[in-house]
Write a structure and sequence with these properties.
- The protein has helices at about 45-50, 120, 185-190; strands at about 5-10, 20-25, 30-35, 40-45, 55-65, 70-75, 80, 85, 90-95, 100-105, 110, 115, 125-130, 135-140, 150, 160-165, 165-175, 180, 195-200, 205-220, 225-235, 245-250, 260-265, 270.
- The chain is globular, with a radius of gyration of 18 Å.
- Strands 15-16-17-22-18-21-20-19 form an 8-stranded mixed beta sheet, with no helix packed on it.
- By secondary structure, the protein is mainly beta.
- The chain contains 3 helices and 24 strands.
- It starts with 5 loop residues before the first strand and ends with a strand.
Length: about 270
């Protein structure tokens, strides 16, 4: 349950199948991707200036799905809102505007975004997405005891338990990634398939890699069947983790055209 419910519609700005929400400070607006795979929220420099960023001497080391790592400076923001909800004073990564220009989609539309709403903010709230209304209900969660708490503790990504081929498997969940990717732990199952080249694009750049393609991929997430098609399979770890049982990275495609609930405080995730 949510203590004080906030409701916002998704942004008018769309980026492929990703969920985009609007941040506001005064009359200034920024469209950001709802990104469980970003440990710290990100804004481009133009938005940071409009939002009156306070520079700090803090630095973090980070990377993205392209597999590159770099050291990044943080800035502090105050009085930033999502709808009527005021985000507590928070540190954001600030990057040059061009870093958040991801080229064009298959239809030639420019893929440009102002930033990412990251796990530092997402994890503190309960989120309920209504696909039919294209809106998010969110707020501070009440404690609840669920029979199926399928989220494990954070490990550079929210870790999601699923049932795959009758066995319990664990994946990272990255809602800022358009497509799910199977990693090296399951790679031997698909090694016999033909290879192709695929682009991995993230805030850390773009890499072209050789992958296998799984034509169908079905799993059970909290008693809901999820079916994916033409999923890339790559023979490497997809994100840093202390665990050796991570099977890959689940993207926003696992909830595409469906409603869902994410409540990390109570370790709960549901595909409706």
């Amino acid at each position: 349950m949510i203590k004080d419910i906030n409701i916002v519609s998704v942004s008018n700005k769309s980026i492929e199948n990703l969920i985009v929400v609007d941040l506001m400070k005064g009359s200034n607006l920024a469209s950001v991707i709802f990104d469980t795979g970003a440990s710290i929220s990100v804004l481009n420099k133009t938005t940071a200036d409009n939002f009156e960023a306070i520079e700090t001497e803090k630095k973090v080391t980070g990377g993205g799905t392209a597999g590159n790592v770099s050291e990044i400076e943080l800035s502090t923001f105050e009085e930033v809102k999502i709808g009527d909800y005021t985000i507590p004073k928070s540190d954001f990564i600030v990057v040059e505007d061009k870093v958040l220009h991801f080229g064009q989609d298959e239809k030639g539309n420019e893929l440009i975004i102002d930033g990412f709403l990251g796990w530092d903010i997402i994890s503190k709230l309960r989120w309920e997405y209504n696909h039919e209304k294209l809106e998010l209900r969110f707020g501070e969660p009440s404690y609840m005891s669920y029979e199926n708490s399928i989220l494990d503790d954070w490990d550079n990504m929210p870790i999601l338990n699923v049932i795959l081929d009758g066995q319990k498997r664990v994946f990272g969940f990255d809602s800022g990634h358009t497509e799910s990717v199977i990693g090296n732990l399951l790679y031997p199952k698909y090694e016999h398939l033909d290879s192709k080249s695929d682009d991995f694009v993230g805030i850390d750049g773009q890499n072209k890699e050789t992958v296998k393609i799984a034509e169908t991929f079905e799993m059970d997430i909290n008693n809901s069947k999820v079916s994916l098609t033409n999923i890339s399979v790559i023979n490497r770890n997809l994100f840093p983790s202390k665990r050796e049982d991570i099977c890959g990275l689940l993207g926003i495609d696992i909830v595409e055209n469906r409603s869902w609930i994410l409540d990390y405080s109570n370790r709960y995730f549901e595909v409706v």
